[in-house]
Amino acid sequence: MKESLRPELQALRERLRRTGDDYRNEARERRHAAGYRTARENLDDLVDAGSFQEYGQLAVAAQRTRRDYVELQSSTAGDGIITGTATINADQVGAQAARAAVVVNDYAVLAGTQGFFHHRKLDRMCELAEQHALPVIMFTEGGGGRPGDTDVLTHIAGLHIESFSTWARLAGKVPRIAVNNGYCFAGNAALFGCADFTIATQTSWIGMAGPAMIEGGGLGKVAATDIGPLEEQLKNGVVDIAADDEAHATALAQQLLAYFQGPVQAWSCAGQEPLRDAVPEDRRWAYPVRKVIETLADTGSFLELRRVYGRSIITGFIRLEGLPVALIANDCQQLGGAVDAESAEKAARFLGLCDAFGLPVLSLTDTPGFMVGPASERQAAVRRMSSLFITGASLQVPVVAIFLRKGYGLGAMAMTGGSFVAPVYAAAWPTGEFGGMGLEGAVRLGFRKELEAVDDPAERERLFDQLLAQMYEAGKASEAASFLEIDAVIDPAETRATVLRALCAAGVCPPSAGPPGASPRHGA
Hints:
Layout: H1 6-18, H2 25-33, H3 39-46, E1 53-55, H4 69-75, E2 81-87, H5 90-93, E3 99-105, H6 116-132, E4 136-139, H7 163-168, E5 176-185, H8 187-194, E6 197-207, H9 211-216, H10 230-235, E7 241-243, H11 246-259, H12 289-296, E8 303-305, E9 313-320, E10 323-330, H13 341-356, E11 361-367, H14 374-377, H15 381-394, E12 399-408, H16 409-415, E13 425-428, E14 433-435, H17 439-446, H18 448-452, H19 457-474, H20 477-482, E15 488-489, H21 495-505
Helix pairs in contact: 13-15, 15-16, 17-19
């Protein structure tokens, strides 16, 4: 090495050292004292070791005209944001499929606020993600826009930045996962809300304005911890997955990303025989459908989204013989499995995302139909429920429908892409039952005159039960299959094999050797 280069290299090393946790001891200690990790600790935990390529590490806040430049190098390292490319989950999916872009807002730098170079770095990463089809994981903790950047004299309001549009423009092109811990306000919250999938820790507060902006707007003083706590943001669907802490959130982000990175070779599954007894013989009894999902899926592969929002439809991801599959399922323990306005909108958005990123869909259907009544209509049921038909009609990925029990009316059609003929394969368990509407309601409406003609209440009840039994027999799964309204009635223990054969026929096959689902095999 030329001697003339040594001073420059030494200066560079010292400059880079000022951006690291080891130099910024006080900031690191504050984070740890609050029970949080530093931005770089989250980054190191997220990406594969040695794979991170950082962009813009030497940036500082645009405040050189009012602060010492050397001090800015440590106190405003990276201008409050770490950006770069890396691989994530390469040991599972291979290096090529594991490519990703990473953005970590650094709360230890000016409370993670967004400054001039901060935005430039974010824009650069979004542009690279779009050009090279890189999924993005973003840690969003921060306080929004920063008013103190005095070096920039080319704007008045600073609203001609592109970060929010470049981030939003990635919608439908690459998966975007936002992870939050701590305060996430204003611009940071807008980035969080624009993501395709959102994860937040128990110590998260997320709002479109922080305390200062609320007070400045004349709305009084509000504590930061009163703005958008996790419990509220789970109930209103802003947060998809709740995490215990930053380590858990990071692991969830890795797991969630992996579904969009492709199949994995190693897998195992539970014995399938218990599925034969999963649905009670008494059709009036509910059952825990999540147990069905967990038995059906590869062991440990079920990841649910928005569990406490739109509760009558479960949305999430599973793997079948290592193959990633999107899943929707009616939860008969919530509203009897009826599709209400909230769950319909939730499922429609989920299906649209899965279609954009090419994930096949499995629908486990057990619904009495759409939720009805004045209260339902006050929730904009007509518009929100209809969104399921619009999304279903546009799906390009294969859908497989398995009817566990009830398949009634428009709600059942909406659960299967808008029609029973929309799925590449539609089958029912022997417990399946079908009708244009719920059988009890069909009897009361269709035989009203006959029932009203019977004066004795006990006799009227016996007639009702008799008519109901007749309709049940007519609507049994085997009858529906005989009229070709569904493709087959299957042994519940053969559901995995059936779904995999259907997906393979549609060109989506698992990586395992041999006929899909031919026998229960276990990965290494």
